[in-house]
Design a protein that fits this description.
The complex is a heterodimer. Chain A is mostly helical. The two termini of chain A are 57 Å apart. In chain B, helix 1 runs antiparallel to helix 2 and helix 2 runs parallel beside helix 5. The radius of gyration of chain B is 18 Å and the shape is flat. Classes of the chains: A mainly alpha, B mainly alpha.
Chain lengths: 797, 140
């Protein structure tokens, strides 16, 4: 059943195009909507299990010989993510039904991609096997690529799609490397088994490389500095996608991975510094950059980056708590609790804000805050949702963002008391940067709402006349806004049901009793918040005066420029290499192939001292064989001297036929038969090609040309002969032919061993061989039938 | 250049069928005596090539109006389908099955799923050879 839950989006994805074709009049989204809702309810039923700190494990063997099994594991952490994926997924789907027109958009594509993503994401968070997790992980990158490039007619969409793909897949591959390193250390791909071995892993010399590789995967996926640059460009995707993938779920996969692997790595100082350090830099840089954005979605993108950095920081600091086993009153574990809590809150308020921005974009035609303003009277409901979301994001009471922000400050302030890994000295920076970043967070939250909804309306600059959105588009953000308020007032609805089991999964050795209280009294955190509000408000009001600060860093040194530079230069270099090596002349290609062949085989042969010549096991040579061999040699040599192509083709055929006589003599009828027919057909093929080939050039007498030809041909001939001789003389293994002789009839009920090997024993080989043949045929067909007109190089066949 | 190839054309009309029948024979007999899908396929395409040499591409296309690309696809489908069919019986991919039946006139007849697989090979080989020859030959 659990497996079915993961697979079901994929199955539905198959049906979507059919549904789209048949029910043209009904918005395809309605068919899809049911699935996430059902899954959400299904996953809700697990709360009763996980809240008592139990886990559900179901396994289907996939490739057991490699230790790869499709094991699904539901614990607090994966359930939290599964609920986010399906819950936000349902809301986003409902929203998308009104956002995307059923007449203009290619809904069949959209919903297939979206379902692919949903299934893949569920797979990521529910798999216990790292290889399965990795497979789904790449699937999410892939579907994100497709969704960002959904409006592929736009240059920016394609650019953004490519960028996200390159960066996240780079991270994904390095993660695969990390997974393999972990496998080398532990000998298993199962996460739960790896966690059990965590103490042995710590001391292994591959520990640090494995950790860094896995973190690269997590950081690229979760858009952490300096890999964050893909996320703002990903905003080219339709807004429902941005709300779903690029704020609520996919970008949190990295956070999931860090949380999931915390029991393995978190005791290490480097892990804490990397995760918390990168997180806090991202937090600051994201919120700092968000303020200068003029595109509403740009603001939200950088805000997402910054909030992800915040959760990352919390997870890193939470790891440090492992060093203080004695303190049981959740003095340090508050960081992890805050991380989980903020994860939920972020999904609610950022989801709502994205939907609001989508509504603004949809109903006014622009997202540029320089053109927007004064929309409040036109869209009162949207405004209400926006202000709730923004205030929660800014960390103001009575919303849920306030609570997690306070906990964040608490965790940061408590870093000062930690006396491991220099956290008590340099760690001073954490609360300071956190505080500064929160000021910027406050500022951009204000910009987001007030520049859009208050001030003067500029109707002449808006492409459309603004009006309130249809009810279907309003329901999802309203639901999220009510959750923001509800979680704000009753945070403990979540604490024992969801947060506590999730924290237990991240820190299995702690028994964390989560209780979130609304009012802490006048403590440091509250004063920090006062400071944030006051300074943030001043920053917002005086933005024009200090915005020059953004011009200190010239464009040239930006990370985006670096990325573009790398991309351009790789393209240039590879173009240069390609055009210098691929000249279009078959002769050059053959030289490459054969030189490589001679070098690699020759060097190996003599390096390994593999050459030997053994005549002990040779049968007597008959006169007929000698004559035949001499005949073949004469024909082959004379081929060099003929002047016409026709003659050389026929001579080549003669060599082939003579070889088949050898097969007859050695009683290999199958080979002989095949060789004969092959020879016939290839001669016929040559004759057909004959028409296209240029005349044998007589004037081509350059000495270097001839020497190269001679060297290559003699080299190939020598190497093949040497290998044939030593293959005969070195018997490294027992010949497998006895096995075939014994089993051909017994196992496969055939008497012709050759054919039984082809279709049965090595049937898989044959299957792939004919596939290769088919590909070759299609390739030739494509090369000839579809060649570009006017290309000069096409004549060199 | 006009050539007179009456002898070749007349001979082809007879030989063609001999080769074709032989190729079918070779194909079916493959499990017990020399032959099989690969050689059978090559022989069939050899026969068609002979037809090509005796007549010309257009005539052959009229006589045998196959789309060889589709033939490749069907062949692959046979091969992969036979392999995948094994999965339905809960045995590993590409496990073959066989049985013997008695048919009044023909006598003892053995039936193999391997033959279906081989049929795939046969079709792919014919399809590939003919696609290549047709495209290269038909290109000006």
């Amino acid at each position: 059943m659990l497996h079915l839950a993961i697979i079901s989006p994929f199955l539905l994805a198959i049906l979507v195009p059919i549904l789209f074709k048949i029910f043209r009049q009904v918005h395809t989204g309605w068919f899809v909507l049911a699935l996430p809702i059902l899954l959400f309810i299904y996953f809700l039923s697990f709360i009763s299990i996980t809240s008592t700190h139990q886990t559900v494990i179901k396994s289907i063997s996939w490739i057991p010989t490699l230790g790869i099994n499709f094991t699904v594991r539901v614990d607090g952490l994966s359930l939290l993510f599964a609920l986010l994926i399906t819950g936000i997924g349902s809301l986003v789907l409902l929203y998308s039904i009104y956002y995307l027109s059923k007449h203009k958009e290619r809904l069949n594509h959209f919903y297939v991609y979206l379902l692919l993503f949903m299934g893949a994401m569920l797979g990521v968070v529910l798999s216990d096997n790292l290889i399965v997790l990795y497979t789904f992980w790449e699937f999410t990158s892939f579907s994100s690529f497709l969704l960002i490039g959904y409006w592929y007619q736009r240059d920016k969409s394609r650019y953004g799609a490519q960028k996200s793909m390159l960066i996240t897949v780079f991270g994904g591959l390095s993660m695969l490397g990390g997974i393999i390193l972990l496998y080398l250390i532990t000998g298993t791909f199962s996460i739960s088994e790896i966690i059990q071995q965590s103490s042995e892993i710590m001391t292994h010399h591959l520990f640090i490389p494995a950790m860094i590789c896995i973190l690269l995967g997590a950081f690229t996926k979760s858009a952490q500095f300096p890999f964050h640059i893909w996320l703002p460009d990903a905003m080219e995707a339709p807004t429902p996608v941005s709300a779903y993938l690029h704020s609520a779920t996919m970008v949190k996969a990295g956070i999931y991975l860090v949380a999931r692997m915390s029991p393995v790595f978190a005791e290490n100082g480097l892990w804490i510094w990397l995760v918390a350090g990168v997180g806090i830099v991202t937090l600051f840089w994201g919120s700092f950059s968000a303020v200068k954005q003029t595109d509403l979605k740009g603001i939200l993108a950088f805000s997402t980056i910054s909030q992800l950095g915040m959760i990352m920081t919390l997870l890193g600091i939470g790891g440090a708590a492992l060093h203080f086993d004695s303190i049981k009153d959740s003095y340090y574990t508050v960081a992890t609790v805050a991380a989980v809590f903020h994860l939920i809150n972020h999904a609610t308020f950022k989801g709502a804000l994205f939907m609001v921005v989508g509504i603004v974009d949809h109903e006014t035609g622009t997202r540029d805050i320089r053109k927007l303003g004064g929309l409040m009277p036109f869209m009162p409901i949207t405004f209400t949702v926006a202000i709730i979301g923004a205030l929660s994001m800014a960390g103001l009471p009575p919303f849920n963002g306030f609570l997690s922000k306070e906990m964040f400050f608490t965790a940061m302030v408590r870093v000062l008391n930690m006396d491991v890994f220099n956290l008590e000295t340099i760690g001073m920076l954490f609360p300071v940067i956190a505080w500064v970043a929160s000021i910027f967070t406050f500022a951009y939250s204000m910009i987001l709402v007030f520049k859009t909804f208050t001030g003067k309306i500029q109707l002449e600059k808006l492409p459309k006349k603004p009006h309130e959105a249809p009810i279907g588009m309003l329901i999802p953000p309203i639901v999220l806004a009510s959750l923001i308020v509800a979680f704000g007032f009753f945070p403990n609805v979540l604490s024992s049901t969801i947060i506590s089991p999730a924290v237990a999964a991240i820190m299995p050795n702690f028994l964390v009793d989560v209780h979130i209280s609304f009012w802490h009294g006048f403590n440091t955190e509250l004063f920090m918040t006062f400071g944030v509000v006051v300074i943030g408000f001043l920053l917002y009001k005086n933005y024009t005066r200090w915005s020059k600060v953004y011009r200190i860093f010239p464009e040239r040194f930006s990370l985006n420029n670096l990325y573009n530079g790398i991309l351009n230069s790789t393209e240039k270099i590879s173009h240069r290499i390609t055009s210098s090596t691929l000249t279009g002349s078959s002769r050059t290609y053959l030289i490459y192939l054969f030189s490589f062949f001679i070098l690699i085989l020759g060097v190996t042969l003599f390096n390994r001292d593999a050459f030997s010549f053994d005549t002990s096991n040779v049968s007597t040579i008959h006169i007929a064989e000698v004559l035949l061999a001499i005949g073949i040699c004469i024909v082959a040599v004379s081929m060099i001297f003929v002047k016409s192509r026709l003659t050389s083709i026929i001579l080549l055929g003669a060599v082939g036929y003579s070889v088949s006589i050898f097969f007859v003599i050695y009683r290999a009828p199958d080979l002989a038969l095949t060789q004969l027919v092959i020879e016939t057909i290839s001669v016929a093929l040559f004759l057909l090609c004959f028409y296209h080939l240029p005349k044998l050039k007589k004037r081509e007498v350059r000495i270097s040309f001839k020497i190269t030809n001679a060297l290559i041909s003699i080299g190939v001939g020598t190497i093949v002969t040497l290998i044939a001789l030593s293959a005969h003389s070195n018997k490294l293994f027992e010949s497998i032919s006895h096995y075939y002789i014994e089993n051909t009839y017994k196992e496969a009920a055939g008497k012709n061993m050759v054919n039984v090997i082809l279709v049965d024993f090595r049937g898989l080989d044959t299957m792939f061989e004919i596939t290769v043949l088919a590909i070759a045929a299609i390739g030739i067909f494509g090369l000839i039938k579809l060649r570009l007109k006017g290309g000069k190089n096409n004549e060199n066949k | 250049m006009k050539t007179n190839d009456v002898i070749l054309q007349t001979a082809t009309k007879v030989i063609l069928f001999i080769i074709l029948i032989f190729s079918v024979f070779i194909f079916f007999t493959g499990h017990y005596t020399p032959g099989g899908g690969f050689v059978g396929g090559l022989l069939t395409s050899g026969a068609i090539v002979l037809l090509l040499l005796a007549f010309d591409l257009k005539t052959v296309k009229k006589i045998l109006p196959f789309n060889y690309m589709i033939m490749i696809a069907i062949g692959l489908l046979f091969a992969i389908g036979t392999g995948a069919g094994a999965l339905l019986f809960n045995v590993p991919f590409l496990t073959h099955a066989y049985t013997h039946i008695d048919i009044p006139i023909l006598g003892d007849l053995s039936l193999h799923t391997a033959t279906l697989f081989d049929l795939g090979v046969f079709l792919v080989v014919v399809g590939v050879t003919m696609t290549i020859i047709q495209t290269i030959g038909g290109d000006d």
